[in-house]
Design brief:
two-stranded antiparallel ribbon; mainly alpha; Arc Repressor Mutant, subunit A
Amino acid sequence: MTNHELRRKILHMLYTCFTEHPYHRITPKEFTESLGVTQKVLDFNIIYLEEKGYVELQKPLEGSIFVGARITTKGIDLVEDTNQLNVLFPNDNK
């Protein structure tokens, strides 16, 4: 899976979660188990999405990079704008 595909999947997971439980955060373990990626790969991509303003990370005082993630309003707008999502994070396996 490419980084673009992984970022799309992360955003879609967070979007789905938000529509069902707006204040729930997805944990790193939930991401790695669902997406089948290592923590290192997840961290790289989730930090990228955070720095772009698409996700918000709940960070611990020390230790892991994050303990929970949720989508931001900017991320919701991106997921709902399929054309823009395809430009920024193309599905490379078409």
